[in-house]
TrEMBL record:
This is Coenzyme A biosynthesis bifunctional protein CoaBC. The gene is coaBC. One of its GO terms (biological process) is pantothenate catabolic process. It comes from Blastomonas natatoria. CTP binds at D98, K108, P125, D126, I127, L128, F144, K158, K162. The chain holds residues 186 to 402 of 402 of the full protein. Its EC number is 4.1.1.36, 6.3.2.5. In the N-terminal section; belongs to the HFCD (homo-oligomeric flavin containing Cys decarboxylase) superfamily. Pathway: Cofactor biosynthesis; coenzyme A biosynthesis; CoA from (R)-pantothenate: step 2/5; Cofactor biosynthesis; coenzyme A biosynthesis; CoA from (R)-pantothenate: step 3/5. It comes from the Bacteria.
């Protein structure tokens, strides 16, 4: 795909969950399927962009025309994002684990019949917030916000806190995570645009059209 409104533009997308190891056989995870992020990468490629997709562990085929980099943990995702720069546009869709274990056990943790194991956690890097402060910050930086309550308030606060340009907010109190549809609100400095519930591939196409309108002048 070399033609289309995003021809020649470098687009970076993160997608999926991250897995944070507890020991060699166990991990901390979340319900993200990667579907929305993969659909966005596919839509961007179809519009002619040069797309790099940094994917956490998901069960999805690579969209055509997309360069995929597979990672497992948040720290691996941060390094892959760094290596994928520069980009004109970044869309951070991944549901990055907020915490990892402070040190994964080298051997499988065994039941002892006595004391329960205690998982000590450490905070993961905030990939989006760090990219916002990076000298190589993409000209358009889009974050996602999955919330279960006060969706718009949290999204507006997140826009300021993360230093990105847009937040795509959705209510995940239902079965959005892993599901096929998504109802989103696009929160920018100019206000809020709310879209009706749509299949994730249509959300992706609409979002990429809005992005192309914003960057192609
Ligand atoms: O703070 P919260 O996790 O709700 O923020 C969501 C947004 O930030 C998403 O765009 C997500 O991809 C990004 N994020 C990130 N690195 C983290 C946590 C979130 O890039 N460690």
């Amino acid at each position: 795909a070399e033609r289309g409104p995003l021809a020649g533009r470098r687009v970076l997308v993160t997608a999926g969950p991250t897995h944070e190891p507890i020991d060699p056989v166990r991990y901390i995870a979340n319900r993200s399927s990667g579907r929305q992020g993969f659909a966005i990468a596919e839509a961007a490629a179809a519009m002619g962009a040069d797309v790099q997709l940094v994917a956490g562990p998901v069960h999805l085929p690579t969209p055509s025309g997309v360069t995929r980099i597979d990672v497992e943990t948040a720290r691996e995702m941060a390094m892959a994002v760094d290596a994928a720069l520069p980009a004109d546009i970044a869309i951070m869709v991944a549901a990055v684990a907020d915490w990892r274990t402070a040190g994964a056990a080298e051997q499988k943790i065994k039941k002892t019949g006595g004391a329960l194991p205690v998982l000590e956690l450490a905070e993961n890097p905030d990939i989006l917030a760090e990219l916002a402060k990076d000298p190589r910050r993409p000209a358009l930086l889009v974050g996602f916000a999955a919330e279960t309550e006060n969706v718009l308030d949290h999204a507006q606060a997140k826009l300021a806190r993360k230093g990105c340009d847009w937040i795509v907010a959705n209510d995940v109190s239902g079965d959005v995570m892993g599901g096929s549809d998504n109802a989103v609100h696009i929160v920018t400095a100019d206000g809020v645009e709310s879209w009706s519930n749509l299949p994730k591939d249509q959300v992706a196409r609409k979002l990429m059209e809005k992005i192309a309108d914003a960057v192609v002048r």
